């Protein structure tokens, strides 16, 4: 297809604003999916995506569309709809998907208005110079207020409220007009057809039958099957087994030229060999300069993952090995905890990535898991100028510390204006500093804060939601590192530190953490035969203390007299209970206590 007839675009939207449903209508309207084969959220393939309504992996689908071209005559065009992951953890993948497009449909729920994720992705789109088509969705809803939110959108992106298209992904109203507008307004791709091939990888997924499927956007030249290609970041050379387009099933083609979007298969078995953002060129007479913007995936949040049942450890290892094939950002290494036994220290892009991974391990591999408090990456410099990268409280160095730096993010919060006070209070208590505030309309406001990532991963989102009755939305991006006064707080049972409960917190929060953790544990740990002091300590300084009083626990005392079977039953029951106990020194701690103490409430 000549580039003039191609339009590459994506849909950016806040979660639940109707991106998947609109994509469904586009598939139907362009005849790519027949009426009877249609099922809801056609492009969201993973079960977990459907259940949670999120899109984890971006997909690209080719849609034929006859529309008036530049000269007014109706002509067949090719639209490539590139689906972007919607969540903050995947900002880099979103930015690569956007970089594969010339335009974006900004989709806003006509009953909700612009939300934080919409804005964050809009900024990314504008940074990538995309042409933005504003659209209000769900106009069929009785609660829709298109006039009001069209004003809001115009206020943000400029232009007139009348330019904002109104559609319903549910009824299909306005979708044809939208596709025509995509052709009319989004610029066609430009590239040098005679230059050495350069294509950008915007996604790669692992398929058990075919190995890694790599999604690419060709910038220059042509990629043809049965040539050899080179990954420019690693110089690795791969044989091409297949090149094609997705519409909506994979269809092999004779090649992909300038501006085209499609997939290729090389037979590699691990997505790390086909990295998002990398440039592909021909192995022979290839390009010498890669496309800009490549970045290695880098974990931002670490947490320990342990099987509830210690004998599941090998199962956990196999499961992680399998997940890794399809997840270039997941890292893990073995870790042992005195309290929790054998497990893995896992690195994730963010909290959602962590949740999804744990969820998949439990659901797809039948594991029962316990995860420790998440941790960001700190850099600690000692007086003697040695530095430590700390992703785990147990790696906190002892000795004289000169300084500590921690990752900082820029947050965007959108909320009804009545909650400004409570949001500011919350952000301040999390060491946030206000960067700016804008009214989107008379009743809705955008707040910008810089805040330590470490404060956000600690139940910030839940706190924000509960203080704003669920109305506030949040998005954030990392902007760098900043010095901070942090300490490690240890929790000791009978003088013995329980590694799973250690935490790195700001100096001013150490006391609060110590008090709440010791109080929680006093409730959770049953009485023992002896007194158990619970202490919170920074170094050797105790900052909080609780005590579990001793109790003489004699199960047999109840059954005076001779019924031997009843006695045996009780003893067995007690033994079974013990299996789910973990020993910390001499103290028996039920597994439930660990789970409860590690969950934020
Ligand atoms: P996504 O998270 O942006 O992909 O949103 P979905 O497409 O999954 O839609 C979220 C919810 O909104 C689903 O329950 C849809 O059925 C509903 N929805 C999507 N589009 C429309 C629409 O145009 N009208 C109405 N009434 N509901 C819609
Ligand atoms: Mg979706």
Keywords:
single chain, 601 residues, alpha+beta, eight-stranded antiparallel beta sheet, 25% helix, globular, binds guanosine-5'-diphosphate, binds magnesium ion
Biggest sheet record: 8 strands, antiparallel
Q: Estimate percent helicity.
A: 10-25%
Based on secondary structure, the structural category is: alpha+beta
List bound small molecules: guanosine-5'-diphosphate, magnesium ion
The number of helical elements comes to: 14
What does the model show?
The chain has 601 residues and is of the alpha+beta class. Helix 12 runs antiparallel to helix 14 (591-598). 45% of the residues are buried. One of its GO terms (cellular component) is plasma membrane. GO terms for molecular function: GTP binding; GTPase activity; ribosome binding; translation elongation factor activity. Its EC number is 3.6.5.n1.
List the helices and strands and how they pair.
Blueprint: E1 6-13, H1 19-29, H2 47-52, E2 60-68, E3 74-82, H3 91-99, E4 103-109, H4 116-127, E5 131-137, H5 146-157, E6 165-166, H6 175-185, E7 198-207, E8 211-220, E9 228-231, E10 237-239, E11 242-246, E12 250-252, E13 261-265, E14 279-282, E15 301-307, H7 313-325, E16 331-337, E17 341-348, H8 351-365, E18 369-371, E19 378-382, E20 387-390, E21 401-416, H9 420-429, E22 433-439, E23 444-452, H10 453-456, H11 460-467, E24 473-483, E25 486-493, E26 496-497, E27 503-506, H12 510-524, E28 532-538, E29 541-548, H13 564-579, E30 581-584, E31 587-590, H14 591-598
Parallel strand pairs: 1-3, 1-4, 4-5, 5-6
Antiparallel strand pairs: 2-3, 7-8, 7-14, 8-13, 9-10, 9-14, 11-12, 11-13, 15-17, 15-18, 16-17, 19-20, 19-21, 21-23, 21-24, 22-23, 25-26, 25-27, 25-28, 28-29, 30-31
This protein binds guanosine-5'-diphosphate and magnesium ion.
Family: Belongs to the GTP-binding elongation factor family. LepA subfamily. Belongs to the TRAFAC class translation factor GTPase superfamily. Classic translation factor GTPase family. LepA subfamily.
Membrane topology: Peripheral membrane protein
Keywords: Cell membrane, GTP-binding, Hydrolase, Membrane, Nucleotide-binding, Protein biosynthesis
């Amino acid at each position: 297809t000549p580039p003039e007839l191609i339009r590459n675009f994506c849909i950016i939207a806040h979660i639940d604003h109707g991106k998947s449903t609109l994509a469904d209508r586009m598939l139907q309207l362009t005849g790519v999916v027949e009426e009877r084969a249609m099922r809801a959220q056609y492009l969201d393939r993973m079960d977990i995506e459907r259940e949670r309504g999120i899109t984890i992996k971006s997909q690209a689908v080719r849609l034929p569309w006859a529309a008036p071209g530049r000269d007014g005559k109706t002509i067949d065009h090719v639209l490539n709809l590139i689906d972007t992951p919607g969540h903050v953890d995947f900002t880099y993948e979103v930015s690569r998907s956007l970089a594969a497009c010339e335009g974006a449909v900004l989709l806003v729920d006509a009953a909700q208005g612009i939300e934080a994720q919409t804005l964050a992705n809009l900024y990314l789109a504008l940074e990538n110079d995309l042409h933005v088509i504003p659209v209000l969705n769900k106009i069929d809803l009785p609660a829709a207020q298109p006039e009001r939110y069209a004003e809001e959108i115009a206020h943000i992106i400029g232009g007139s409220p009348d330019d904002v298209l109104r559609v319903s992904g549910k009824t299909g109203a306005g979708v044809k007009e939208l596709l025509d507008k995509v052709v009319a307004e989004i610029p066609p791709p430009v590239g040098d057809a005679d230059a050495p091939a350069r294509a950008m990888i915007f996604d790669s997924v692992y398929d058990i039958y075919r190995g890694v499927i790599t999604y690419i956007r060709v910038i220059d030249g042509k990629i043809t099957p049965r040539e050899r290609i080179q990954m420019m970041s690693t110089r690795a050379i791969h044989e091409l087994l297949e090149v094609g387009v997705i519409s909506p099933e994979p269809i092999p083609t004779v090649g992909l030229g300038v501006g085209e979007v499609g997939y290729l298969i090389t037979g590699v078995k691990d997505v790390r060999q086909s990295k998002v953002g990398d440039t592909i060129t021909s192995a022979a007479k290839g390009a010498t300069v890669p496309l800009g913007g490549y970045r290695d995936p880098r974990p931002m949040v670490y947490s320990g993952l342990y099987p509830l049942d210690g004998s599941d450890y090998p199962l956990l290892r196999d499961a992680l090995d399998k997940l890794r094939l399809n997840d270039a950002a997941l890292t893990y290494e073995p870790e042992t905890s005195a309290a929790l036994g054998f497990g893995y220290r896992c690195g994730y892009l963010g909290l959602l990535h962590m949740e999804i991974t744990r969820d998949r391990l439990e659901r797809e591999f039948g594991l029962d898991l316990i995860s420790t408090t998440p941790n960001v990456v700190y850099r600690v410099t000692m007086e003697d100028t040695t530095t430590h990268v700390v992703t785990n409280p147990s790696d906190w160095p002892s000795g004289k510390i000169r300084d500590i730096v921690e990752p900082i993010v820029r947050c965007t919060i959108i909320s009804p204006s009545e909650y400004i006070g409570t949001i500011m209070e919350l952000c301040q208590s999390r060491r946030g500093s206000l960067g700016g505030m804008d009214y989107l309309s008379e009743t809705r406001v955008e707040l910008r804060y810089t805040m330590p990532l470490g404060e956000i991963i600690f139940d910030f989102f839940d706190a924000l939601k509960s203080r704003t009755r669920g109305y506030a939305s949040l998005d954030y991006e990392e902007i760098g590192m900043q010095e901070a006064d942090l300490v490690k707080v240890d929790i000791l049972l009978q003088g013995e530190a329980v590694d799973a409960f250690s935490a790195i917190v700001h100096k001013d929060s150490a006391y609060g953490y110590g008090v709440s953790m010791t109080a929680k544990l006093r409730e959770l740990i049953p009485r023992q035969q002896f007194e158990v002091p619970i202490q919170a300590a920074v170094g050797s300084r105790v900052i909080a203390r609780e005590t579990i009083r001793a109790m003489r626990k004699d199960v047999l005392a109840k059954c005076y007299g001779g019924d031997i079977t009843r006695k045996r039953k009780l003893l067995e029951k007690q033994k079974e209970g013990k299996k789910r106990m973990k020993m910390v020194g001499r103290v028996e701690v039920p597994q439930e206590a660990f789970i409860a103490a590690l969950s934020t409430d």
